[in-house]
Design a protein that fits this description.
There is one protein chain. By secondary structure, this protein is mainly alpha-helical. The chain has 2 domains: 37 residues, no CATH class; 62 residues. It is built from 2 helices and 3 strands. The chain has a 3-stranded antiparallel β-sheet, with no helix packed on it. Helix 1 packs antiparallel against helix 2. It is elongated, with a radius of gyration of 18 Å. The N terminus is likely disordered.
Length: 101
């Protein structure tokens, strides 16, 4: 079996892992840890929360740099949404790490 690192459920065939212990959020495919499992629901939710955080961050930054009415109306709401999404992403990351060990 081909041994490659799996990072948050996504296979990385370019990184060999033979003889190396897995780090947080990683496991060696073909090892005893999560052998044969596909990306879990928690991992999918984590990736969605991370992507949503990134989108809100980018929209907020664009609004901040452009200024104007959009920034006055939505700037603080976007910042609060980003913080909430980051909290969800961190909680999901902890759940993924706890359930994967």
């Amino acid at each position: 079996m081909d041994h490659s690192w799996v990072i948050l459920g996504i296979r990385s065939p370019h990184l060999a892992c033979a003889g190396q212990p897995p780090a947080a959020g990683l496991y060696c495919e073909g090892s005893e840890l999560l052998s044969g499992h596909e990306m879990s629901l928690l991992t999918t939710l984590l990736l969605a929360a991370m992507l949503a955080t990134l989108v809100v961050l980018v929209v907020g930054l664009i609004g901040f740099f452009h200024g104007g009415e959009f920034n006055r109306k939505y700037g603080n709401k976007l910042m609060r949404a980003r913080v909430a999404l980051q909290a969800v992403a961190v909680a999901l990351l902890l759940l993924v790490l706890i359930t994967s060990s």
